What we know:
Elements: H1 4-18, H2 26-39, H3 46-56, H4 63-82
Helix pairs in contact: 1-2, 1-4, 2-3, 3-4
Amino acid sequence: MMTKKEQYDEFWLLTKSVLQDSKIDADEARVIKRWLEEHRDGNSFDFIITKLEGFLSDGYVDRFESTKVIDALGCVLRQLRTAE
């Protein structure tokens, strides 16, 4: 099992690579969702997983949704950082 620091470091690298173009597309959102599902502990990450499911329901992440996902990624990073 990964420590919170290891999760933070891995998620930071994932986020950094996904945000190279400053937007999130559907494929990137699926990758993020899968990582969050694999690393959830109890109810952790449920808020963003639920958002991602909603955004992906039509198979497309528009500009507004992309911005919301980027904001949520910051929340996840803060959550992992404070849990260290």
